[in-house]
Amino acid sequence: MVFRLDRHSDQRRYNAPTANEIAVVFVNSDGEPPFERDIRVYPLNLQNPQQPFSNINILSPNLDPMAYPVLFPYGEPGWQPNWRCEYYEGAQGNQS
Prior knowledge:
Elements: E1 40-41, E2 54-55, H1 63-67
Antiparallel strand pairs: 1-2
C-alpha cells in the first residue's frame, strides 16, 4: 500500500507509519475494499537501484501469497480471473 503524505493536514493526527508491519482497514459504504489502490513490492534489487519498487495488480495471482503468507506458506499462486473450479470424484458436499 502507498501512504501519500499530505503536508497541509495536521501532522500530529496523520502520522506516517513507524513500524515494519502495518495493518489496513478499509471502510466503504458496501463493505468492499476500494478497487483502485496502489499495492507495491519493494524487492532487494541490487542490479537496478533506480527502480526501487514494482506495482502489483490486485488481480495478480501473486498477490494472495504475499498478503496471506499463513494461507499460502509455499508461495503457490492465489485467486486469479477465470479460475476453474475442479471437482474430484468422491468429493462430498452441496453443489449449486
